[in-house]
Write a structure and sequence with these properties.
The chain has 8 helices and 4 strands, in the order ααββααβαβααα. It has 225 residues and is mainly alpha-helical. α2 runs antiparallel to α3.
């Protein structure tokens, strides 16, 4: 398994090889899609009671839709609508600029550990990662994979430069190396380095190891906010 220090890439380099292709051939891509469909379906069915509970709690405790939809950068940077359980009050995106001074991330991603826009239920959903469960629908639709770089909000993804843009040469994922290595406790530079390691070294064994290690990472809640 990769460590952050073992990933040697220059994120500010403007030189991206024109013939770059992520690791893994056609057979890997086909096998990965089969795993996404089979495992994604099993997980969707298994987590339906949890999702029903989350939906009820959201509906009973705050106004607004149960599902939050946002445009994210998918394969090739193409936009797609990603699904999450709503964890903030309605209109929270419009208030982002008022809280810019509280941003704790050193890159284009906006993160606040104690985000005042979170609802009480939303804080629990974030901490437990239950808010991400609706993305199983994105996986089954082929817009995401179980394993791959986390999809960035479209305006943030468009700020990526140099080798960092290579993270969109593969499908975004529900979990990734960043997810099991500390999540929001990592710097933006560390996050992208781990994503690039995955892009350049992905295979079914690495995918399996990431999926297995996601379970304790989710249970611990470390870096989830």
């Amino acid at each position: 398994m990769a460590t952050i220090d073992s990933v040697d890439v220059s994120l500010t380099s403007a030189s991206v090889p024109s013939d770059f292709a992520p690791s893994g051939g056609r057979s890997y891509v086909m096998a990965k899609r089969a795993v996404d469909i089979v495992v994604g379906t099993v997980l969707l069915v298994a987590t339906l009671p949890l999702m029903l509970l989350a939906a009820i709690l959201i509906k009973l405790t705050s106004r607004g839709p149960i599902i939050f939809r946002q445009q994210r950068a998918g394969l090739g940077g193409e936009p797609f609508t990603m699904f999450k359980f709503r964890t903030m009050y309605t209109g929270a995106e419009d208030d982002r600029h008022y809280l810019a001074h509280l941003n704790e991330n050193d890159g284009p991603v906006f993160k606040i550990s104690e985000d005042p826009r979170l609802t009480l239920v939303g804080r629990f959903l974030r901490r437990s990662s239950m808010d991400e469960l609706p993305q199983l629908l994105n996986v089954l639709a082929g817009q995401m994979s179980l394993v791959g770089p986390r999809p960035m909000w479209l305006p943030e993804a468009r700020q990526m430069k140099g080798l960092a843009t290579l993270r969109t040469t593969v499908k975004p994922g529900l979990t990734c190396l960043w997810q099991i290595s500390g999540r929001s406790e990592l710097s933006f530079d560390q996050w992208v380095k781990l994503d690039l390691y995955y892009v350049m070294n992905r295979n079914l064994l690495l995918d399996l190891l990431i999926i297995i290690q996601t379970v304790p990472a989710v249970i611990s809640g470390y870096g989830a906010y």
